[in-house]
C-alpha cells in the first residue's frame, strides 16, 4: 500500500471515530498536522514552507523520548470541514514538504466538536 493510501485509511478511521462518538459533522475543525525531526534547521525550513502554503504554524517543541533522544516537533494548522477529501488534499500538500527536508510527517489530529442542539 502506498503512503498516500495509508494516510487515506488513517484519515477515514479518524473521521469515522469522531462521528461515531457524536462529534458534529457540520462543524469547522482545527486540523493539526504533526511534523517531527532531530534537526532544528530542517524543521524550521519545513515550518516556513508550511506557512507559505497557507498553514498556521506552531512554535517548535522539544520532546524527550523514552530512550533519552530529543525530538523536535511542530504543527501545521488549518481550519477544515471533517471531510476526507479536504483533509487528504492537505496531507498531499504537506507530505512533500516533510520529504524535502527529511523530517517526519506524523499524521494529523483534531478535537471533538459538540453537536449543536
From TrEMBL:
It holds the Pfam family RraB. InterPro entries: RraB, RraB-like_sf, RraB_dom. GO terms for molecular function: endoribonuclease inhibitor activity; enzyme binding. Its main location: cytoplasm. It is found in: Cytoplasm. Residues 9-110 form the Regulator of ribonuclease activity B domain. Keywords: Cytoplasm. One of its GO terms (cellular component) is cytoplasm. Belongs to the RraB family. Interacts with the C-terminal region of Rne. Globally modulates RNA abundance by binding to RNase E (Rne) and regulating its endonucleolytic activity. Can modulate Rne action in a substrate-dependent manner by altering the composition of the degradosome. This is Regulator of ribonuclease activity B. It comes from Oceanimonas doudoroffii.
